[in-house]
Amino acid sequence: MNIVLMTGNHPRHAYIASRIAASGLLSGLVIEEREEHLPAAPEGLPAGIEALFVQHFDKRARVERRFFPPAEYSLPQLPTLRVTREELNGEKTWAFLETLSPALLLSYGVHKLSPETLAKTPGQRWNLHGGLSPWYRGCITHFWPSYLLEPQMTGMTVHTLTDEIDGGEIVHQSAAPLVRGDGLHDLACRAVMSLGEELPALLHLFRDGGIAPPRRQRSTGRIWRASDWRPAHLTLIYESYGDQIVDRYLDGDFGIRPPKLRRQKLA
Prior knowledge:
With about 270 residues, the protein is of the alpha/beta class. About 35% of the residues lie in helices and about 15% in strands. Helix 1 (about 10-20) links the parallel strand 1 and strand 2. The longest helix is centred in the C-terminal third of the chain and has 24 residues, at about 185-205.
């Protein structure tokens, strides 16, 4: 059995690729060249908001490199196609997928795949979504749980790939462990690691035909758009709560509501 992963080029993407490769089943990669990991602040921001913007993304880069150091988690040396966003759903990608003919196509951290792209793969297709569906579908879904004061809802969802944004049937979910002292970006990285640690066993279960049937999402939840996020949202994280939302949750300040997860029986 062979697997192809379509992913981005940030440290967390390399980590997930390395964990999939640890299964011994990964046969190829499609790498989408994503936006800069340290984006420039939009023009016209008030000075205080601009400072928070710079602080936020600088911390994200530092924390990701601490959790996923490039020297330890580099992209596997396998047949690889690098594409731009414009090329992602194009002839080069289609030819690459047809050549490798994966039994399982995985996507993580790439833009939406077109029906034409999905049709080039004969096997099953899963998305590794950085959020707990159906509550957190769409974009920036490791930010919104903390912003809404429910950091326990930070996690990952493996679901079947469909035309709906993060709306496919749920195969498996994992939640980030809540560690006292963690900030927003530490929590996001732990969410990625929690799934990464389980991926080899999950993929072996798939290879051996032991995956329990995926579960249909019982509600539409919410699809978060990139345009929903604004730099001013950072004031709640850093000024109102000092990036200590995990601690405040563990102290019981926001109430306790553990997520209900769909879990496969992993060895």
